[in-house]
Please model this.
Amino acid sequence: MTHPTTTPGLPTLGGRRSSYRERVADALRAALIAGELRTGEVYSAPALAARFGVSATPVREALLDLAKEGLVDAVPNKGFRVTAVSERQLDEYTHIRALIEIPTTVQLARTADPVALAGLRPVAEEIVTAAVAGDLIAYVEADLRFHLGLLALAGNEHLVEVVRDLRRRARLYGLTALVEQGRLQASAEEHLELLDALLARDERAVHAVMTRHLGHVRGLWAAPQPEQRPAPHA
Model:
């Protein structure tokens, strides 16, 4: 997998504009999710800066932000170690997301502007395109834009930020395995299925698709690779 030479920026959501530091942090998260930054490995800010083609200062600042999120730990005089996510943490994050996202999305079947919903279709199609190409970073970025853009239609900015934080903490382990198994496209196409159900005002279908989709997040995306699983307790 080639490493990006520029930091990908996410489009604004609800007027939110990313700073350069935030864009660097987004690029690092994407590299972590795609498996380019490995759990347990220690990375220095200068080395990552050279890898991403940026200066060391925003990388160091972005790593400090990721440390606050629990994604990396500072290692004195060496850099930052990518932290592992336990099975229990993944279960808790997914449970909270289900409590927030399923009822909120079902409500959107009654309240969301059809034009605004239709405006998310190009993003949903980007997700499918990225899945077909096996482009994990593009997939993750489009998936984030879709889900946060959809939740933003509920008009609660704090809710959007809570889900953004949960997604960052949970990460999306297992994407590479999904590509190899040919299952990533099916998960991607659920975004289009969800939009169709929302536009049809079919609350039952929306509930079913969201429940299934979040089940994939936990059962498929979030499943750690064998070398990433925490060692069993004696």
Notes: Residues 87-227 form a domain with the Four Helix Bundle (Hemerythrin (Met), subunit A) fold (CATH 1.20.120.530). Residues 1-17, 221-234 have pLDDT under 50 and may be disordered.
